[in-house]
Automatic annotation (TrEMBL):
<keyword id="KW-0472">Membrane</keyword>
<dbReference type="InterPro" id="IPR022837">
    <property type="entry name" value="MsrQ-like"/>
</dbReference>
<dbReference type="GO" id="GO:0016679">
    <property type="term" value="F:oxidoreductase activity, acting on diphenols and related substances as donors"/>
</dbReference>
<keyword id="KW-1133">Transmembrane helix</keyword>
<keyword id="KW-1003">Cell membrane</keyword>
<keyword id="KW-0285">Flavoprotein</keyword>
<keyword id="KW-0288">FMN</keyword>
<comment type="subunit">
    <text>Heterodimer of a catalytic subunit (MsrP) and a heme-binding subunit (MsrQ).</text>
</comment>
<keyword id="KW-0479">Metal-binding</keyword>
<feature type="transmembrane region" description="Helical">
    <location>
        <begin position="30"/>
        <end position="49"/>
    </location>
</feature>
<dbReference type="GO" id="GO:0005886">
    <property type="term" value="C:plasma membrane"/>
</dbReference>
<feature type="domain" description="Ferric oxidoreductase">
    <location>
        <begin position="31"/>
        <end position="144"/>
    </location>
</feature>
<dbReference type="GO" id="GO:0046872">
    <property type="term" value="F:metal ion binding"/>
</dbReference>
<keyword id="KW-0349">Heme</keyword>
<comment type="function">
    <text>Part of the MsrPQ system that repairs oxidized periplasmic proteins containing methionine sulfoxide residues (Met-O), using respiratory chain electrons. Thus protects these proteins from oxidative-stress damage caused by reactive species of oxygen and chlorine generated by the host defense mechanisms. MsrPQ is essential for the maintenance of envelope integrity under bleach stress, rescuing a wide series of structurally unrelated periplasmic proteins from methionine oxidation.</text>
</comment>
<keyword id="KW-0249">Electron transport</keyword>
<feature type="transmembrane region" description="Helical">
    <location>
        <begin position="100"/>
        <end position="121"/>
    </location>
</feature>
Amino acid sequence: MMAFLPLLALYLLAFTEQLGADPVEDVIHFTGIGAFNLLLISLLITPIAKKYRQGYLLQTRRLVGLYSFTYALFHLLNFLAFEVQFDLALFFDEIIDRPYITVGMAALIILLSLAVTSITAIRRKMGKKWQKLHNGVYLAVLLISLHFFWSVKSDIVEPLIYVAMAVFLLSLRKDKIKRWFKR
Ligand code: HEM
């Protein structure tokens, strides 16, 4: 639950007009970065658990992943509510016209499919397919890196740091990823 406190604080500040000159931009940035940070943390858990042989850490992956999805959902809701005022036609135009929104939406759909299938009963039913689907998180992390990179207008240092972190986390899984391409 603690991971939701910053989100609560954000909306309290936003609705009491205590954010900066552009509160819409602030909430979109905060939730976007929050979602990305949590996703990267979820991808850091397995390598750390393996290296230090702390298997119990693996149980935390689902929760951190779900937190990431929740932040991403708020990110989308903020965009829908404050940028396009729930005008769905305009929203679909944005998905088509702006590549960074296209890839953001694709990433969100992947995260949604992972969140839904993380329910234990569904996970059991899916058997081996579950792991295959969940490997989609690697694609999601690449799409989000691209989304972040394309969304900024000038200062590319921060997105580049994030891209580097994403590539690093994927490089730790290079053997697994190579195996897919060989098949
Ligand atoms: C569902 C579709 C999505 C929409 C419509 C959307 C929309 C946006 C918008 C409007 C911005 C701000 C661009 C600007 O500064 O002008 C943004 C930035 C960002 N988004 Fe998204 N996004 C989506 C999905 C995602 C997802 C799934 C993630 C991560 C899990 C994400 C992470 C980010 C990050 C990290 C930023 C940069 C924040 C910053 O500049 O500090 N977005 N997004």
